[in-house]
Amino acid sequence: KEKEQEALLSGEHDGCSCFIEVQAGAGGTESMDWASMVLNMYKMWAYRHGLVVSVVDEMPGEIAGIKRGTIKVDGKHAFGYAKSEVGVHRLVRISPFDSGKRRHTSFAAVAVIPILGDASVHVQINESDLRIERFRAGGAGGQHVNTTESAVRITHIPTGITATCQNESWKCPQACAICNLRLEVFVL
């Protein structure tokens, strides 16, 4: 069994921590609810395997679920275990959001990105190439998120790539967003 596991986790970046990003597909509230379920499943999976999970970004849906969400999973072989989850996940069920109780098909796209370490993922980004916008975060958080600009959106003008951070666990959302932007530009 150990040899089998060793063979499965022998990829170049399999020992790394990773980001797991889930994005709701077409289908409105139903797909957003499914995306939320998928993200929560990955959180629970990581906790059960002794990995450390932190929410990097989460954009809530209007009625239920999330439009997209990103978690950071820290621990040995996090990327190796999660890399096979990349792709589109489908759910067919009787929708709790449909008064006609019809069957709906929902989709959620999953991306898994290894965290290669500061030396490997260092991407030089000129400050003049960035457009930085501060805004009020959405979702849970009480009056604080409604009254302070606790979220940041950074756009890399040459590529059009956008990164946001609005989670209260990050002391500096701008640093978080720049880190995410570097990662996206590196992957590109």
TrEMBL record:
<protein>
    <submittedName>
        <fullName>Peptide chain release factor 2</fullName>
    </submittedName>
</protein>
<dbReference type="Pfam" id="PF03462">
    <property type="entry name" value="PCRF"/>
</dbReference>
<dbReference type="GO" id="GO:0005737">
    <property type="term" value="C:cytoplasm"/>
</dbReference>
<dbReference type="Pfam" id="PF00472">
    <property type="entry name" value="RF-1"/>
</dbReference>
<comment type="similarity">
    <text>Belongs to the prokaryotic/mitochondrial release factor family.</text>
</comment>
<dbReference type="InterPro" id="IPR005139">
    <property type="entry name" value="PCRF"/>
</dbReference>
<feature type="domain" description="Prokaryotic-type class I peptide chain release factors">
    <location>
        <begin position="136"/>
        <end position="152"/>
    </location>
</feature>
<dbReference type="GO" id="GO:0003747">
    <property type="term" value="F:translation release factor activity"/>
</dbReference>
<dbReference type="InterPro" id="IPR000352">
    <property type="entry name" value="Pep_chain_release_fac_I"/>
</dbReference>
<dbReference type="InterPro" id="IPR045853">
    <property type="entry name" value="Pep_chain_release_fac_I_sf"/>
</dbReference>
